[in-house]
Design goal:
With 95 residues, the protein is α+β, with helices and mostly antiparallel strands. Helices cover 27% and strands 41% of the residues.
Length: 95
């Protein structure tokens, strides 16, 4: 008996079609997770306190149209300053 007769017949696997499906699915997944540009709004409120008095100012709203969230967040920062016995705190919220 010849050894070639013991080998089972080979059926071709449709790897080309399967690979296309996998690559297409991966591309759709990456595109859906990518950061896109949207309109973002930063609202900041400043509270100043000192000498037993605390005053909260009107909110300041800044629009960041068609921007990535990371870029808008870099400009929408909360901070605290002190001087002359007063403390001024600005709280910002990005939406």
């Amino acid at each position: 008996m010849h050894y070639k007769s013991l080998i089972l017949p080979h059926k071709p696997i449709k790897t080309h079609t399967t690979m296309k499906k996998v690559l297409f699915t991966a591309a759709v997944l990456v595109a859906s997770l990518a950061s896109c540009k949207k309109d973002h709004t930063c609202t900041c409120t400043t509270t100043t306190s000192g000498s037993g008095v605390s005053v909260t100012g009107d909110p300041v709203v800044t629009e960041y149209p068609k921007s990535k969230k990371a870029a808008a967040r870099a400009h929408c920062l909360s901070y605290t300053t002190t001087g002359n016995g007063y403390t001024s705190t600005t709280d910002c919220d990005l939406k």
